[in-house]
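Please produce the structure of this protein holding NAP.
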Amino acid sequence: MKKVILIGAQGKMGQAALTGLQKHHVITASRSGNGTDYQVDITDKKSLKALFEKVGPFDAVVNTVGYCEYADFTDMTDEQWDATVQSKMIGQINLVKVGLEFINDGGSFTLISGILNVKPIPMAIADATTSGAIDTFVRCVAHELPRSIRINVINPTVLEEAWDVYGDMMPGFQPVPGTLVGKAFERSVDGFITGQVIFVDA
Ligand SMILES: NC(=O)c1ccc[n+]([C@@H]2O[C@H](COP(=O)([O-])OP(=O)(O)OC[C@H]3O[C@@H](n4cnc5c(N)ncnc54)[C@H](OP(=O)(O)O)[C@@H]3O)[C@@H](O)[C@H]2O)c1
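Below is the modeled complex.
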């Protein structure tokens, strides 16, 4: 059994990840802290450090947080770009940077991206761009991590559980069940792979 910190646990992707982490001791966190063990804001390095200090030694971090703004490229404001970059891109990168100081030898990080960087749709340029950045970050930073620490990213298509929210934006896409995406998180945490973008698509 591993001690796993799951960030964004109450969200749709967090609930999908949880299905793949059943055999572990899972400690949950989110921005509001509602229904989770701890409160954390991934856009704030001090908040991330405080979380890791409070939890104590752990074996894995699974992050399912990455806030995105949706608009056509010509309409995207600086504020919308900044909000997306600070959460889905810099927030996840900082989570690894800060978490490295606290994670056990042989531990793992699992981040979140999303299929829109390889299957673009209208209004999703910020999600697609930051997802692509995180896929690249994971592939490359894996070579630099010390102490046999691993890193992977889950790049899923839309969840069945989120189809009511995103379905209208995604004609021609086939949603997948959260339990299938949970298997991808399980492969990342329990396997020996590193530097992988684990796609889950129908
Ligand atoms: N849903 C899908 O079908 C799908 C498919 C592929 C990829 N993704 C990606 O998965 C990620 C999560 O999507 P989701 O559908 O799970 O969203 P969601 O249901 O809205 O959940 C978001 C979660 O993130 C937490 N959160 C937001 N900002 C935070 C911050 N700054 N610090 C800490 N926690 C924060 C929220 O906590 P509070 O509620 O406490 O604020 C909530 O638990 C997104 O990047 C999305 O692009 C989603």
